[in-house]
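Handout for the seminar on molecular recognition.
Each group receives one record of this type.
Step one: identify the two inputs.
Step two: read the structure output and locate the region that could contact copper (II) ion.
Step three: write two sentences on what you found, then compare them with the reference statements printed after the record.
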Amino acid sequence: MRNVARASPPALLVLALLVAGCGPGSASGSRTTALTESGSTVHVVMRSLAFAPAAVNARVGQRVVWTNQDSSPHNVTYVSGPRFTSSRVSMKPGARFSLRLTTPGTIHYFCTLHPWMKATIDVSP
Ligand SMILES: [Cu+2]
C-alpha cells in the first residue's frame, strides 16, 4: 500500500490537501467541519457539552488530542469505524485523551455521559 505514494505525482497530493482544506461543504451545509491541525496533531475540545469541532479530517499517522475544557466530566467512547480503545469514563475538567490514527476510515465516537455529544474523525490514508 505504501508504494502507491511513490507512483503518485505531487500534484495529486496538492489536490488532496486543497480538497480537504477548503471546499464549501457541498454535502451537508449545516454540519460543522473544520481542519484543526498543528503539525501532526489534531485538536478537539469538549466545551459547552459538545465536541468542537464535531467533525475533523485527519491522516493516518497523526494524533488526535481531546481536551476537556468544560466544567463537567466527559469521555471519548468508540462507536464505529477504525477501532480504538475508549478513554476513561470520567475525564475530569482539564483532562486530556490522545489517540494515534493507524487505520483509514471514518471514526464515530460519543460521550456516554451526554449521549447527544456525537462526533466523527475522517481518517484518510
Ligand atoms: Cu460528556
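Reference statements: The two ends are 9 Å apart (CA to CA). Residues 74, 111, 113-114, 117 surround copper (II) ion (CB under 6 Å).
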